[in-house]
């Protein structure tokens, strides 16, 4: 009876110690994790090589590890990776995550990079946090890189290689090969013909160089002629043009003076045309009448003498038969 009591006491003490050890372990874990932060990363690519405990680096510096890897239920194309990093790590706006390989071991790690100085940290917004942080922790955006980018583009590369192979196969048919052989044969003949005409080609090149030299001399002469023409224009034509300009200016001033004189004489001309000309007409009529009277007097004097001016004209003497 006493032995059974001792076993029960020992068992109770052991259970209590185990419970205390478990509590201490949880406390240590919480104490150690108090200086760490969790983030989610959604990769739309293969995460082959990642596992729980894989390293997380920032610019090559280890800062944490992978805590969880799972498919995202709303869209299975994405893989959700939960990482735990040091609290002092600057996870700021602009930071991106990528998967990179570690040597040739086939093991991968998550690399963070791209934080901007002075940018705010990545946090969940206070309004509608579920839209940005579906699992209650901030989300770090991704960018393809390293081996993951190559693996993601491998299907497209293989497809393009297959398409290129098919096109090359269609291009290298018997007919096309015969055409290529004909082209090469024609090229050989053309090369031989050029080799045979080498001296003629050399002579043609020499004549071309001579023509170029002559063209250069002609261009130089044209330049000298242009300089001479410039000097002639500067020494002869320009003074003549200056004299002509002065003459034109003088004629313009004379025309302006004549116009002013005509403007000043216009009132007198108007008065002359309205008053003097009618009076001159009356004077001309009077002069015409006076001349007619003088003509009559002259005729009377001629016929009857001077006495006819003071008396009546005598009748001619009558002679009887």
Q: Could you walk me through the main structural features you see in this protein, from its secondary elements to its overall organization?
A:
Residues 40-113 form the Mce/MlaD domain. Pfam families: MlaD. This is Mammalian cell entry protein. InterPro entries: Mce/MlaD (IPR003399). This protein is α+β, with helices and mostly antiparallel strands and 321 residues long. The protein has a domain at 31-151. Helix content is 60%, strand content 13%. It is built from five helices and six strands. The chain has helices spanning 2-33, 129-132, 146-171, 174-196, 198-304, and strands at 36-43, 55-58, 61-71, 79-86, 96-101, 108-113. It has a six-stranded mixed β-sheet. It starts with a helix and ends in a 17-residue tail after the last helix. The mean pLDDT is 77.
